[in-house]
Amino acid sequence: MAWGTCSLALFVTLRSITAKPPRLRRAPTAADLNNHHRNTLEEIFTHPTSGNIEWRNVLSLIEAVGTAVEEHNGKLKLTIGSETEVIRPPHGKDIDPQLIADLRKMLRAAGYSPAK
Predict the structure, then answer these.
(1) 9, 16, 19, 24 - which has most CB atoms within 10 Å?
(2) Domain-located, residue 76
(3) What pLDDT score does 79 carry?
C-alpha cells in the first residue's frame, strides 16, 4: 500500500471517530423569522383573507419553518411541524383562499401565529 493511500485511510478513520454528533435543529419560532416571513405570516392570518398573497413569499415562509418537496406528479408535499398537506402549486402568482385556510390551519397547529 502506498504512503498516500495509507495516510488517507487513517485520516478518514480518525475523522469518523472524532466527528461530533450532528446537532439537532430546533424548529424556528415566529420570533426567529425574518421580516419578510413575518409579513407573509401576518397576511395569511389576516381576516378577511387577502386575495393577493404571493406564492413565492408563501413558499419562502414554508421553507423557513418546514419543508416543501416536489413530487413526481408536480404537486408539492408541505410539512410544517406534524402537519403534512399535498397541494397543487398555483399557476399564477397569488394563492387562492382555500390554500390560505389550509396554511392557516397547518401554521396554527405548528405553533405559528402573527405577533400581536
Answers:
(1) 9
(2) yes
(3) 92
